[in-house]
Amino acid sequence: MAARILPLFPLPVVLFPGVQIPLHIFEPRYRLMLADCLAGDRRFGLVYCPPGLAERALPSGQVGCVAEIDEVEELPDGRSNIMVTGGERFSLVSFVDSTHPYHVGEVADYRDIPEPAAPLTELASRVRDHFDRIARAITTIANENAPPPELPEEPTLLAFRVASLIDIGAPARQELLTSRSASQRLRDIGALLDTALASIERGARTHVQARRNGSGHGTAESTS
């Protein structure tokens, strides 16, 4: 695996490949990191650091994701709001001593284990179907008519995107990021969707019926 040097931003959040998230840059050391990145290739490494853990205590092998800077909003006091998109994953080899006030690390490429395409396509189709059904049910309950969020066509990225849209904790997100099996990621996300699907669709049906009843459009009693 190829190793390289990368500016590192330890945070208690997980960035997934292909997913866009906002970040607020306020510490002076990361303001400088942002300036250096903008003057270079606009990339840094975002690595999950659990609350309470010292940043330099992150272990070798911790998996992170390259953040590619898309947009920057500079604020009058020197802070910035930025939008980043997740690129490729990496594993932390070690922190590197440098003259920069922000963290710099040696990182190595981190890729999936190759798997047959056909099973991945089948798993991805099921995940898409269940996610779309859940999204439609939620919009029904919220009395909205918005289309479901767009999902990537690439099966290896699908679980990452769905995970970014559902309510799971950061440790579970980090576990998903660390997985090198796209099929296992799809199974794990599919299991979460399966658990939620029946109750959410039942809630949507109840909501629709309640609205009909409240509008006087319920089923009338038959008379003989």
Secondary-structure map:
Blueprint lengths: L2 E9 L8 E6 L2 H12 L3 E6 L14 E12 L5 E16 L7 E7 L7 H25 L13 H11 L4 H9 L3 H33 L10
Parallel strand pairs: 1-3
Antiparallel strand pairs: 1-6, 2-5, 3-4, 4-5, 5-6
Helix pairs in contact: 2-3, 2-5, 3-5
Amino- and carboxy-terminal Cα gap: 80 Å
Described by strand count, sense and barrel closure, the largest sheet is: 5 strands, mixed, barrel
SS content category: alpha+beta
Number of self-contained structural domains: 2
- Average pLDDT, to the nearest integer? 92
Task: Please report the number of helical segments.
Answer: 5
* Proportion of residues in helical segments: 40-55%
Task: Write down the Rg.
Answer: 22 Å
CATH class value of the largest domain: Mainly Beta
**Any guess at the CATH architecture of the largest domain?**
Roll
CATH homologous superfamily assignment of the largest domain: LON domain-like
Description of the structure:
- The chain has 2 domains: 3-109, Archaeosine Trna-guanine Transglycosylase, Chain: A, domain 4; 117-214, no CATH class.
- Mean pLDDT is 92; it is low at 218-224.
- It has 5 helices and 6 strands.
- Strand 4 (63-74) and strand 5 (80-95) form a beta hairpin.
- Helix 2 (117-141) packs parallel to helix 5 (182-214).
- By secondary structure, the chain is of the alpha+beta class.
- It has helices at 28-39, 117-141, 155-165, 170-178, 182-214; strands at residues 3-11, 20-25, 43-48, 63-74, 80-95, 103-109.
- Helices cover 40% and strands 25% of the residues.
- The protein has a 5-stranded mixed β-barrel.
- The protein is globular and about 70 Å long.
